[in-house]
Amino acid sequence: MRSAKDFFVPLAVGAPAPLHEIPARPSRAIHFFDPSNAKMAAKVPDMAGTVDVLLGNLEDAIKVENKQAARDGLVDIAKSTEFGATQLWTRINALDSPWVLDDLTTLVPQIGDKLDVIMVPKVQGAEDIHYVDRILAQLEAKAQLERPILVHAILETARGVANIEEICGASPRMQGLSLGPADLAADRRMKTTRVGGGHPGYLVRQDPIDGDTFGDRPTYQQDLWHYTIARMVDACAMHGIYPHYGPFGDIADVVACEDQFRNAYLLGCVGAWSLHPKQIAIAKKVFSPSVEDVTHARRVVAAMGDGSGAVMLDGKMEDDASTKQCLVMVQLAEQLAEVDPQLKAAYDAIEI
Description:
13 helices, 15% strand, 8-stranded parallel beta barrel, 43% helix
Protein backbone atom coordinates (compact mmCIF):
# COMPACT_ATOMS: atom_id res chain seq x y z
CA MET A 1 0.00 0.00 0.00
CA ARG A 2 1.29 3.43 -0.94
CA SER A 3 1.56 6.12 1.71
CA ALA A 4 -1.16 8.72 1.34
CA LYS A 5 1.44 11.46 1.01
CA ASP A 6 2.95 9.68 -2.01
CA PHE A 7 -0.33 8.95 -3.80
CA PHE A 8 -0.07 11.96 -6.11
CA VAL A 9 3.66 11.64 -6.81
CA PRO A 10 4.46 10.63 -10.43
CA LEU A 11 5.43 6.96 -10.74
CA ALA A 12 8.28 7.73 -13.17
CA VAL A 13 10.84 10.51 -13.36
CA GLY A 14 9.61 13.04 -15.89
CA ALA A 15 6.03 11.80 -15.96
CA PRO A 16 3.26 14.41 -15.62
CA ALA A 17 1.86 15.04 -12.15
CA PRO A 18 -1.28 13.00 -11.38
CA LEU A 19 -4.59 14.81 -11.23
CA HIS A 20 -6.00 15.58 -7.79
CA GLU A 21 -9.56 15.62 -9.15
CA ILE A 22 -11.06 13.90 -12.19
CA PRO A 23 -12.69 16.46 -14.53
CA ALA A 24 -16.46 16.20 -14.91
CA ARG A 25 -16.43 15.93 -18.69
CA PRO A 26 -19.66 14.74 -20.35
CA SER A 27 -19.55 11.08 -21.35
CA ARG A 28 -23.19 10.28 -21.99
CA ALA A 29 -22.34 8.05 -24.96
CA ILE A 30 -19.05 6.17 -25.30
CA HIS A 31 -19.27 5.24 -28.97
CA PHE A 32 -17.21 2.20 -29.98
CA PHE A 33 -15.67 1.88 -33.43
CA ASP A 34 -13.33 -0.62 -35.07
CA PRO A 35 -10.25 1.25 -36.30
CA SER A 36 -9.43 -1.64 -38.68
CA ASN A 37 -12.76 -1.22 -40.46
CA ALA A 38 -12.27 1.31 -43.24
CA LYS A 39 -15.99 2.12 -43.44
CA MET A 40 -16.18 2.87 -39.69
CA ALA A 41 -12.90 4.76 -39.69
CA ALA A 42 -14.09 7.05 -42.48
CA LYS A 43 -17.03 8.18 -40.35
CA VAL A 44 -14.94 9.21 -37.34
CA PRO A 45 -13.96 12.74 -38.49
CA ASP A 46 -17.61 13.64 -39.10
CA MET A 47 -18.65 12.23 -35.70
CA ALA A 48 -16.03 14.25 -33.84
CA GLY A 49 -17.78 17.06 -32.04
CA THR A 50 -21.18 15.34 -32.17
CA VAL A 51 -20.62 12.63 -29.53
CA ASP A 52 -19.08 12.93 -26.08
CA VAL A 53 -16.61 10.04 -26.45
CA LEU A 54 -15.25 8.16 -29.45
CA LEU A 55 -13.53 4.91 -28.46
CA GLY A 56 -11.21 2.98 -30.75
CA ASN A 57 -11.73 -0.64 -29.80
CA LEU A 58 -8.74 -2.99 -29.85
CA GLU A 59 -10.09 -5.85 -27.74
CA ASP A 60 -13.21 -8.04 -28.06
CA ALA A 61 -14.96 -7.86 -31.45
CA ILE A 62 -11.58 -7.35 -33.17
CA LYS A 63 -10.39 -10.56 -34.84
CA VAL A 64 -6.89 -11.79 -34.03
CA GLU A 65 -5.72 -11.19 -37.57
CA ASN A 66 -6.95 -7.58 -37.34
CA LYS A 67 -5.30 -6.62 -34.03
CA GLN A 68 -2.33 -4.94 -35.69
CA ALA A 69 -4.53 -3.17 -38.23
CA ALA A 70 -6.82 -1.87 -35.49
CA ARG A 71 -3.88 -0.49 -33.51
CA ASP A 72 -2.31 1.15 -36.55
CA GLY A 73 -5.70 2.42 -37.70
CA LEU A 74 -6.30 4.13 -34.38
CA VAL A 75 -2.93 5.88 -34.62
CA ASP A 76 -3.79 7.16 -38.11
CA ILE A 77 -7.25 8.32 -37.07
CA ALA A 78 -5.95 10.13 -33.99
CA LYS A 79 -3.23 11.91 -35.92
CA SER A 80 -5.52 13.05 -38.74
CA THR A 81 -8.65 14.05 -36.78
CA GLU A 82 -9.50 17.20 -34.85
CA PHE A 83 -11.76 15.97 -32.07
CA GLY A 84 -12.81 19.30 -30.57
CA ALA A 85 -14.90 18.73 -27.45
CA THR A 86 -15.12 14.99 -28.16
CA GLN A 87 -12.86 12.81 -26.02
CA LEU A 88 -10.76 10.08 -27.62
CA TRP A 89 -10.62 6.81 -25.67
CA THR A 90 -9.35 3.35 -26.49
CA ARG A 91 -10.03 -0.09 -25.08
CA ILE A 92 -6.77 -2.01 -24.98
CA ASN A 93 -6.51 -5.78 -25.02
CA ALA A 94 -6.73 -7.77 -21.79
CA LEU A 95 -3.68 -7.65 -19.53
CA ASP A 96 -3.02 -11.37 -19.99
CA SER A 97 -3.16 -11.15 -23.79
CA PRO A 98 -0.17 -11.17 -26.19
CA TRP A 99 -1.21 -7.78 -27.64
CA VAL A 100 -1.54 -5.45 -24.66
CA LEU A 101 2.11 -4.40 -24.36
CA ASP A 102 2.22 -3.47 -28.03
CA ASP A 103 -1.02 -1.54 -27.55
CA LEU A 104 0.50 0.60 -24.81
CA THR A 105 3.99 1.00 -26.24
CA THR A 106 2.55 2.02 -29.61
CA LEU A 107 -0.31 4.28 -28.61
CA VAL A 108 1.21 6.32 -25.80
CA PRO A 109 4.36 7.47 -27.65
CA GLN A 110 2.52 8.13 -30.93
CA ILE A 111 -0.85 9.56 -29.89
CA GLY A 112 -0.63 9.98 -26.11
CA ASP A 113 -1.25 13.70 -26.52
CA LYS A 114 -4.63 12.89 -28.14
CA LEU A 115 -5.72 10.04 -25.86
CA ASP A 116 -7.87 11.05 -22.91
CA VAL A 117 -8.66 7.66 -21.38
CA ILE A 118 -7.48 4.06 -21.71
CA MET A 119 -10.17 1.50 -20.92
CA VAL A 120 -8.81 -1.65 -19.30
CA PRO A 121 -10.92 -4.82 -19.68
CA LYS A 122 -11.50 -7.61 -17.18
CA VAL A 123 -9.93 -5.80 -14.22
CA GLN A 124 -9.66 -8.21 -11.28
CA GLY A 125 -8.17 -6.04 -8.55
CA ALA A 126 -5.98 -3.09 -7.68
CA GLU A 127 -2.90 -4.96 -8.89
CA ASP A 128 -4.12 -4.66 -12.49
CA ILE A 129 -4.48 -0.89 -12.17
CA HIS A 130 -1.06 -0.61 -10.49
CA TYR A 131 0.52 -2.47 -13.42
CA VAL A 132 -1.03 -0.16 -16.02
CA ASP A 133 -0.34 2.90 -13.85
CA ARG A 134 3.41 2.30 -13.73
CA ILE A 135 3.77 1.47 -17.42
CA LEU A 136 1.80 4.56 -18.42
CA ALA A 137 3.99 6.77 -16.23
CA GLN A 138 7.14 5.40 -17.84
CA LEU A 139 5.77 5.81 -21.36
CA GLU A 140 4.45 9.30 -20.63
CA ALA A 141 7.86 10.35 -19.33
CA LYS A 142 9.58 8.96 -22.42
CA ALA A 143 7.08 10.71 -24.71
CA GLN A 144 7.34 13.94 -22.65
CA LEU A 145 3.57 14.17 -22.28
CA GLU A 146 2.28 17.14 -20.32
CA ARG A 147 -0.86 15.55 -18.89
CA PRO A 148 -1.56 12.06 -17.55
CA ILE A 149 -3.71 9.62 -19.50
CA LEU A 150 -6.61 8.45 -17.35
CA VAL A 151 -7.74 4.85 -16.80
CA HIS A 152 -11.24 3.40 -16.98
CA ALA A 153 -11.84 -0.15 -15.70
CA ILE A 154 -14.49 -2.59 -16.91
CA LEU A 155 -16.22 -4.81 -14.34
CA GLU A 156 -16.42 -8.16 -16.11
CA THR A 157 -15.61 -10.70 -13.39
CA ALA A 158 -17.02 -11.65 -10.03
CA ARG A 159 -13.63 -10.97 -8.47
CA GLY A 160 -13.59 -7.50 -9.98
CA VAL A 161 -16.98 -6.73 -8.44
CA ALA A 162 -15.82 -8.11 -5.08
CA ASN A 163 -12.74 -5.83 -5.24
CA ILE A 164 -14.57 -2.82 -6.62
CA GLU A 165 -13.65 -0.33 -3.88
CA GLU A 166 -9.92 -1.06 -4.07
CA ILE A 167 -10.04 -0.83 -7.87
CA CYS A 168 -11.64 2.61 -7.71
CA GLY A 169 -9.01 3.81 -5.24
CA ALA A 170 -5.98 2.15 -6.85
CA SER A 171 -4.64 5.20 -8.70
CA PRO A 172 -5.28 8.92 -9.18
CA ARG A 173 -5.61 8.00 -12.88
CA MET A 174 -8.92 6.26 -12.27
CA GLN A 175 -11.58 8.03 -14.32
CA GLY A 176 -14.42 5.59 -13.85
CA LEU A 177 -15.93 2.14 -14.26
CA SER A 178 -18.19 0.44 -16.78
CA LEU A 179 -20.39 -2.60 -16.34
CA GLY A 180 -19.42 -5.43 -18.70
CA PRO A 181 -22.56 -7.56 -18.43
CA ALA A 182 -21.76 -10.33 -20.95
CA ASP A 183 -18.39 -11.42 -19.55
CA LEU A 184 -19.63 -10.86 -16.00
CA ALA A 185 -22.66 -13.09 -16.65
CA ALA A 186 -20.37 -15.86 -17.90
CA ASP A 187 -17.99 -15.52 -14.96
CA ARG A 188 -20.88 -15.63 -12.48
CA ARG A 189 -22.41 -18.63 -14.29
CA MET A 190 -25.59 -16.64 -14.88
CA LYS A 191 -28.02 -18.38 -17.22
CA THR A 192 -28.47 -15.63 -19.78
CA THR A 193 -26.93 -15.28 -23.22
CA ARG A 194 -27.92 -11.63 -23.69
CA VAL A 195 -25.48 -8.72 -23.80
CA GLY A 196 -26.95 -6.44 -21.16
CA GLY A 197 -30.62 -5.81 -20.60
CA GLY A 198 -33.10 -7.94 -18.73
CA HIS A 199 -34.43 -11.46 -19.11
CA PRO A 200 -38.10 -12.50 -19.21
CA GLY A 201 -37.40 -15.34 -16.81
CA TYR A 202 -36.07 -13.04 -14.08
CA LEU A 203 -39.38 -11.96 -12.55
CA VAL A 204 -41.66 -11.79 -9.56
CA ARG A 205 -45.25 -13.00 -9.60
CA GLN A 206 -48.18 -11.33 -7.90
CA ASP A 207 -49.49 -13.19 -4.86
CA PRO A 208 -52.67 -15.24 -5.35
CA ILE A 209 -55.94 -13.44 -4.72
CA ASP A 210 -58.53 -15.16 -2.51
CA GLY A 211 -56.53 -18.39 -2.56
CA ASP A 212 -56.76 -18.78 -6.33
CA THR A 213 -53.24 -20.07 -7.07
CA PHE A 214 -54.13 -21.13 -10.64
CA GLY A 215 -55.66 -17.88 -11.85
CA ASP A 216 -54.09 -15.33 -14.18
CA ARG A 217 -51.47 -13.77 -11.87
CA PRO A 218 -49.48 -10.89 -13.36
CA THR A 219 -45.68 -11.12 -13.52
CA TYR A 220 -43.16 -8.29 -13.44
CA GLN A 221 -39.75 -8.54 -15.09
CA GLN A 222 -36.86 -7.56 -12.83
CA ASP A 223 -33.46 -5.95 -13.50
CA LEU A 224 -30.61 -8.48 -13.52
CA TRP A 225 -28.02 -5.72 -13.06
CA HIS A 226 -29.54 -3.58 -10.32
CA TYR A 227 -27.23 -4.83 -7.56
CA THR A 228 -24.04 -4.49 -9.60
CA ILE A 229 -24.88 -1.03 -10.94
CA ALA A 230 -25.80 0.24 -7.47
CA ARG A 231 -22.57 -1.11 -6.01
CA MET A 232 -20.59 0.40 -8.86
CA VAL A 233 -22.24 3.80 -8.34
CA ASP A 234 -21.46 3.77 -4.62
CA ALA A 235 -17.81 2.84 -5.15
CA CYS A 236 -17.35 5.52 -7.82
CA ALA A 237 -19.06 8.21 -5.75
CA MET A 238 -16.85 7.34 -2.78
CA HIS A 239 -13.71 7.91 -4.88
CA GLY A 240 -14.87 10.85 -7.00
CA ILE A 241 -14.94 8.96 -10.30
CA TYR A 242 -17.69 8.14 -12.78
CA PRO A 243 -19.88 5.03 -13.29
CA HIS A 244 -21.17 3.96 -16.71
CA TYR A 245 -23.55 1.33 -17.96
CA GLY A 246 -21.88 -0.83 -20.60
CA PRO A 247 -23.25 -2.29 -23.85
CA PHE A 248 -26.84 -3.08 -24.78
CA GLY A 249 -26.49 -5.76 -27.42
CA ASP A 250 -29.94 -5.81 -29.00
CA ILE A 251 -29.43 -2.93 -31.43
CA ALA A 252 -32.96 -3.23 -32.86
CA ASP A 253 -34.73 -2.99 -29.50
CA VAL A 254 -34.41 0.75 -28.95
CA VAL A 255 -37.24 0.79 -26.40
CA ALA A 256 -35.58 -1.69 -24.03
CA CYS A 257 -32.23 0.02 -24.59
CA GLU A 258 -33.69 3.34 -23.50
CA ASP A 259 -35.29 1.71 -20.45
CA GLN A 260 -32.02 0.07 -19.39
CA PHE A 261 -30.04 3.27 -19.89
CA ARG A 262 -32.64 5.22 -17.88
CA ASN A 263 -32.45 2.75 -14.98
CA ALA A 264 -28.68 3.29 -14.90
CA TYR A 265 -29.11 7.08 -15.14
CA LEU A 266 -31.57 7.20 -12.26
CA LEU A 267 -29.23 5.10 -10.11
CA GLY A 268 -26.35 7.53 -10.70
CA CYS A 269 -24.53 6.49 -13.89
CA VAL A 270 -23.33 9.30 -16.14
CA GLY A 271 -23.38 7.46 -19.46
CA ALA A 272 -23.40 4.18 -21.39
CA TRP A 273 -21.69 2.49 -24.30
CA SER A 274 -22.97 2.93 -27.84
CA LEU A 275 -22.52 0.04 -30.27
CA HIS A 276 -24.48 1.66 -33.10
CA PRO A 277 -25.11 5.31 -34.03
CA LYS A 278 -28.81 4.97 -33.13
CA GLN A 279 -27.78 4.31 -29.51
CA ILE A 280 -25.88 7.61 -29.37
CA ALA A 281 -29.14 9.55 -29.61
CA ILE A 282 -30.70 7.35 -26.94
CA ALA A 283 -27.79 7.86 -24.53
CA LYS A 284 -27.66 11.63 -25.11
CA LYS A 285 -31.39 11.86 -24.43
CA VAL A 286 -31.45 9.63 -21.36
CA PHE A 287 -28.32 10.91 -19.63
CA SER A 288 -29.28 14.58 -20.06
CA PRO A 289 -31.72 16.00 -17.48
CA SER A 290 -35.08 16.86 -19.01
CA VAL A 291 -36.21 20.47 -19.21
CA GLU A 292 -38.95 19.61 -16.72
CA ASP A 293 -36.46 18.19 -14.20
CA VAL A 294 -34.11 21.15 -14.56
CA THR A 295 -36.99 23.59 -14.19
CA HIS A 296 -38.11 21.95 -10.96
CA ALA A 297 -34.56 21.73 -9.64
CA ARG A 298 -33.93 25.41 -10.27
CA ARG A 299 -37.21 26.34 -8.58
CA VAL A 300 -36.28 24.37 -5.48
CA VAL A 301 -32.79 25.90 -5.32
CA ALA A 302 -34.24 29.40 -5.73
CA ALA A 303 -36.92 28.81 -3.10
CA MET A 304 -34.46 27.41 -0.57
CA GLY A 305 -32.15 30.43 -0.68
CA ASP A 306 -29.16 29.58 1.51
CA GLY A 307 -30.25 25.94 1.64
CA SER A 308 -31.25 25.91 5.30
CA GLY A 309 -34.68 25.31 6.76
CA ALA A 310 -37.63 24.01 4.75
CA VAL A 311 -40.22 25.40 2.33
CA MET A 312 -43.47 24.18 0.80
CA LEU A 313 -43.43 24.11 -3.01
CA ASP A 314 -46.34 22.75 -5.04
CA GLY A 315 -47.67 21.07 -1.90
CA LYS A 316 -44.41 19.25 -1.18
CA MET A 317 -41.86 19.88 1.53
CA GLU A 318 -38.40 20.80 0.29
CA ASP A 319 -35.41 21.02 2.62
CA ASP A 320 -31.61 20.73 2.71
CA ALA A 321 -31.62 17.21 1.27
CA SER A 322 -33.94 18.33 -1.53
CA THR A 323 -31.54 21.16 -2.37
CA LYS A 324 -28.59 18.78 -2.59
CA GLN A 325 -30.51 16.51 -4.95
CA CYS A 326 -31.58 19.43 -7.10
CA LEU A 327 -28.05 20.84 -7.26
CA VAL A 328 -26.90 17.54 -8.80
CA MET A 329 -29.43 18.12 -11.60
CA VAL A 330 -28.59 21.82 -12.02
CA GLN A 331 -24.83 21.26 -12.12
CA LEU A 332 -25.15 18.44 -14.66
CA ALA A 333 -27.33 20.65 -16.86
CA GLU A 334 -24.69 23.41 -16.71
CA GLN A 335 -21.90 20.99 -17.67
CA LEU A 336 -23.84 19.57 -20.61
CA ALA A 337 -24.91 23.01 -21.83
CA GLU A 338 -21.24 23.90 -22.32
CA VAL A 339 -20.83 21.20 -24.99
CA ASP A 340 -24.37 20.72 -26.34
CA PRO A 341 -25.87 23.78 -28.10
CA GLN A 342 -29.37 22.24 -28.29
CA LEU A 343 -29.43 21.58 -24.56
CA LYS A 344 -28.07 25.04 -23.84
CA ALA A 345 -30.90 26.61 -25.83
CA ALA A 346 -33.47 24.46 -24.07
CA TYR A 347 -32.10 25.12 -20.60
CA ASP A 348 -31.63 28.86 -21.26
CA ALA A 349 -35.30 29.13 -22.19
CA ILE A 350 -36.42 27.90 -18.78
CA GLU A 351 -38.35 30.44 -16.74
CA ILE A 352 -38.82 29.99 -12.98
